[in-house]
Design a protein that fits this description.
Elements: E1 2-11, H1 15-26, E2 31-35, H2 41-45, H3 48-65, H4 81-105, E3 109-112, E4 114-117, E5 130-133, E6 143-152, E7 156-158, E8 171-172, H5 174-177, E9 186-190, H6 194-205, E10 209-214, H7 225-237, E11 241-244, E12 253-255, E13 260-263, E14 268-271, E15 273-276, E16 280-282, E17 296-297, E18 300-301, E19 314-316, H8 327-341, E20 356-358, E21 363-368, H9 371-377, E22 381-387, H10 392-396, E23 403-409, E24 415-422, H11 425-437, H12 442-447, H13 457-466
Parallel strand pairs: 1-2, 1-6, 2-3, 6-19, 8-15, 9-10, 9-15, 10-11
Antiparallel strand pairs: 4-5, 5-6, 7-16, 12-13, 13-14, 17-18, 20-21, 21-24, 22-23, 23-24
Helix pairs in contact: 1-8, 3-4, 3-6
């Protein structure tokens, strides 16, 4: 049994884990990461990066098919899912090598294996020592990582339906979608949230007949209702079929050897594949939480604003704590936790300043509160809506049917929330997020000089209009 001493041991080498490790090293902490699969985690290997690579390929195909809209002869290109997946793999591999290089550059030790937190033992009077098991050699002795602090960043996994477990053949998770060998002719997507709609957009652009089934009253319920309706219409215009407010059960779904049959209100339809996209569950099982004072709520680890658990030297960030399950949120939480360990007095994260993006076509992005949340808060507000049709560069880009909305506190002019649907909004939202972060007023955002022509002028127009001095609206 080999024992090693560290200032910090991080369980999980995903986005939060490896960024926190770099920060810890720069703070002078001797740091190790324990990762059972690959550095980069879900975001790099099965989530953010690979899905956006495939969405880009689909966007190129769509541009070629719709070239006539831009004064160019349309052309239906030939393509193979194999080449699209290979391109995705090349992007992921490049980024993966970059992460590995960063670990070496910053002196972070990486242990490949499964880490579990031990209780008080001969190694330490406190819970927190980590035992690392080699997944490829069951007979090998565990390596023991003695430490002053632990950061749990083990991420999450796709949730299953109890009557529809993943089989990797016809019942798929988002992970399985990353390695498709063929485009299904008919694809059902259960769940009308962010992940489900991104795959609906992607697979429709690649030629699949897609049906989205959502048990709730609307798609993307956390977003603005107008945005939800506009996105549904845009995807429906591309051919996506929707069943909203439809709950499924073992009586309405039947899995066969090479297909799935789903019974709707009045008919039964066969699908080649079904993607179950109903959320994600935290990876907290069998990591030794029972050996600690750590509390959980519905499986998620409970922390304070600095991401400390009930064992103050053990921190947790990212999907395992159940806040916004976004890579950039997990990263920021990790940075705050590490700075707190190093007595750097970090500023806590205001989740109302976090940008949220949906990479469908058209794109959706928002920051701050939606209208329902503002109404619930009781704050008097002003609402303004500007069509992208008023912005020349957006019309040129073919996104004139989109719009932006801004909610402003009536008394102070402070920006309460911004939401947009249209071209490049997943980039534009960063400007709105900065405005929220520095507490800029709508007037300050609107009077700052924006390049012309640029799609970003939508934020200038929204800010001016919300301040009562609109120009082009």
């Amino acid at each position: 049994m080999l024992a090693h001493n560290y200032d910090l041991v991080i369980l999980g080498g995903g986005t939060a884990g490896y960024v926190a490790a770099i920060k810890a090293s720069k703070n002078g902490l001797k740091t190790a990461i324990v990762e059972s699969k690959k550095l980069g985690g879900t975001c790099l290997h099965n989530g953010c990066i690979p899905t956006k690579s495939m969405l880009k390929s689909a966007e190129v195909i769509t541009y070629m098919k719709d070239a006539e809209k831009y004064g160019v002869d349309s052309y239906t290109p030939s393509f193979s899912i194999e080449n699209i997946v290979n391109r995705k793999n090349a992007v992921v591999d490049q980024m993966f090598k970059g992460v590995q290089g960063l670990m070496k550059k910053n002196g972070v030790d990486v242990f490949e294996g499964y880490g579990r937190i031990l209780g008080p033992s001969i190694f330490s009077p406190m819970a927190g020592t980590v035992a690392v098991e080699n997944p490829n050699d069951e007979e090998a002795e565990a390596e023991i990582l003695i430490n002053n602090n632990v950061l749990i960043a083990t991420g999450s996994k796709p949730r299953e339906l109890p009557f529809l477990p993943f089989d990797g053949n016809v019942v798929l998770s988002s992970d399985h979608m990353m390695n498709l060998e063929a485009i299904p002719e008919n694809l059902a997507i259960i769940g009308g949230g962010v992940i489900g709609l991104e795959f609906a957009s992607l697979m429709t652009d690649l030629g699949a007949n897609v049906t989205v089934i959502e048990a709730g009253k609307s798609l993307i319920p956390a977003e603005d209702k107008d945005v939800s309706k506009r996105l549904q219409k845009a995807l429906a215009d591309k051919g996506v079929a929707f069943h909203i407010g439809l709950g499924l059960s073992e009586d309405t779904v039947k899995v066969e050897e090479s297909s799935v049959s789903i019974t709707f209100e009045e008919e039964t339809k066969q699908f080649d594949k079904v993607l179950v996209s109903i959320g994600r569950s935290p990876n907290t099982e069998d990591i030794g939480l029972n050996n600690t004072k750590i509390e959980t709520n519905n499986g998620f680890i409970v922390t304070n604003e600095f991401y400390q658990t009930k064992d103050k030297h053990i921190y947790a960030v990212g999907d395992v704590i159940g806040n916004l399950q976004l890579a950039h949120v997990a990263t920021k939480e990790g940075l705050i936790a590490v700075d707190h360990m190093a007595d750097q007095s970090p500023i806590t994260l205001d989740y109302n300043t976090v940008p949220k993006c949906i990479y469908t076509q058209p794109e959706v992005a928002s920051v701050g509160m939606n209208e329902a949340q503002i109404k619930e808060s009781g704050v008097p507000y002003i609402k303004k809506k500007v069509a992208f049709g008023a912005v020349g560069k957006a019309v040129i880009a073919g996104g004139g049917n989109g719009f932006g909305k801004m909610y402003v506190e009536k008394e102070t002019g402070s920006i309460l929330g911004v939401t947009m649907i249209g071209p490049s909004v997943t980039e534009l939202i960063n400007e709105a997020a900065l405005a929220k972060f520095v507490d800029a007023s709508a007037l300050e955002l609107g009077t700052s000089v924006h390049a012309h022509p640029s799609i970003g002028e939508i934020l200038m127009e929204l800010g001016l209009d919300a301040a009562g001095v609109g120009i082009h609206v």
